Amino acid sequence: MGMQRELQTRRRRRLRYQLRQKGNGRPRLSVFRSSKNIYAQVIDDMAGKTLVAASTLDAAAKEKIKTGADINAARIVGKLIAERAKKAGLGQVVFDRGSYIYHGRVKALAEAAREGGLSF
Q1: In 10 A of CB 116, how many CB atoms?
Q2: Cβ neighbours of residue 36 closer than 8 Å, sequence gap 6 or more
Q3: Domain locations in the chain as residue ranges
Q4: Fewer CB within 10 Å of terminal CB in the chain, N or C?
């Protein structure tokens, strides 16, 4: 494992530990960002299950975007995940930015999810 990867894993672990401490068992809105796409899922860590998911690969998002790698795409995924979470009866989540800084696409997704009615 390269040094970069090692540090990434460490950041992700550190953040998730903090979320467990402060989250009071709320489901976790986890974000994964690749060079071409962005993905979001709401995970119930007690059960180890993904409750809802959305990404730039979804048919619902695909028709609205040119590329999955920009802020616009991240906003659409944020709205989508909020819609689906609300449909599943989830209003309260904790935001898991993984090893990414809260900036750019990750921030855009979070803000859109908040606008869509998710509270975190």
Answers
A1: 17
A2: 67, 68, 69
A3: 3-115
A4: N
Q: Which CATH class is domain 3-115?
A: alpha beta
List, for residues 76-85, the tens digit of each pLDDT value.
999 999 999 9
Token pair, residue 14, equals: 């550190």
Rounded to whole angstroms, how far apart are CA atoms 57 and 108? 17
The structure tokens listed for 61 are 């998002």
